[in-house]
Amino acid sequence: ATNITWWHGMGGRNGEVINEVAQKFNAAQPSCALTPVSKGTYEEALAAGIAAFRSGEQPNILQVFDAGAATIINAKGAVVPAEDLIKDAGYKFDRNAFIPGVRYFYAAADGKFVGMPFNSSAPIMYINSEALKKAGVEAPKTWEEFEAIAPKLKDAGYIPLVQSQLTWEFTENFFSRNNIQFATNNNGYDSVVDTKLKVTDPNLIMMFEKLKAWSDEGYFKYYGAGWNDNQKPFEEGKVALWVGSSGSFGGLKKTATMPFSATFLPYWGSIKGAGAHSFIGGAALFAMSGKSAEENKCVADFFQFLTSPEIQKFYHQATGYVAITEAAYELAKKEGYYDKEPVAEVGIKQLKLKDGEWSKGYRLGFYPQIREIMEREYGRIFSGETSVKDAFDTIERQGNQLLERFAKTAG
Ligand SMILES: O=P(O)(O)OC[C@H](O)CO
């Protein structure tokens, strides 16, 4: 068999499921043998993949998260567009088979799929059912509704609100859900040259001033800006509302100590045009260049295998990442999966909400590094070292410097 490798950035339950997907592919056909290799986090997988490409030791397939899309797509000669690879292998490729939120994020300007959508997610709000019952309140649809119920949740003995990733959930997806422009040049899609962040938007500043005020009142608890800082207190039943990835569902089902449900990431009722769908989160798979025709054929076979409704459904149900094709979604619906597991449908429903002018995606170079600047400044906001306005002035200034540098490296 032809050996191919797949570097990824997933751990925990989701890392186990990657291995199960590879085993299913290997068992389904005799000609290709796929080996998945965990490279740590999403950030580490991207860095490892780029470094390996420079030294000619790249894997066949690299998983790259949303924040790294511009980096990988603009790395000259590093990837073969997924759509070309699949067509060259003799398969048909139908862009419209994919749900709308997925079609644009990893595509080239002409719509060609460069990355192969794989694990797509939405930031959703998980609900501790006991907490809401005890406080006698309903789950909020808007942040105004959250403000109204937060004192009751606190009085009932819970931390009202916690989030898993401040950049993804309360920054990037603040822009998508509230339908506000995130960066110039069509959120960065039209050109890497002279693209500038718009994070000093008064609405975003308002959101973070609210978060700081809620944190001072005990309505929001900042455990940290990163990935896994906050899931545990929710699982332990201390938190009423937790904003996390739909892709955390598979893990949560095994670890939560209380019954939970979920609803959409709230938006501001006061912002005109708000309530659009979120950006897709998660990651896509990129076929790295410089490989033999046999290996590329195996990668194409694997990509094709991944889009089959059965495998999509398996992956969706095992993890909580959304079904990325309409066919897989319909199959899960037909089988009554969402009657049993309504939480699993929240992410896909959120991705199918109305389109907003600014909800399609963003394409920003060095964005993982820009997230690091954000995380540093958010820590300073919640510790009281800086004001929200000063923090966003700094993020915009330093972020724009990174974008300028990226434009030079991308030529
Ligand atoms: O936790 P995930 O995999 O849904 O990813 C969330 C973000 O999109 C990562 O940047």
From TrEMBL:
Keywords: Periplasm, Signal, Transport. Its main location: periplasm. One of its GO terms (cellular component) is periplasmic space. It comes from the Bacteria. It is found in: Periplasm. InterPro entries: Bact_solute-bd_prot1 (IPR050490), SBP (IPR006059). The complex is composed of two ATP-binding proteins (UgpC), two transmembrane proteins (UgpA and UgpE) and a solute-binding protein (UgpB). Belongs to the bacterial solute-binding protein 1 family. PANTHER family: ARABINOSE-BINDING PROTEIN-RELATED (PTHR43649), SN-GLYCEROL-3-PHOSPHATE-BINDING PERIPLASMIC PROTEIN UGPB (PTHR43649:SF31). This is sn-glycerol-3-phosphate-binding periplasmic protein UgpB.
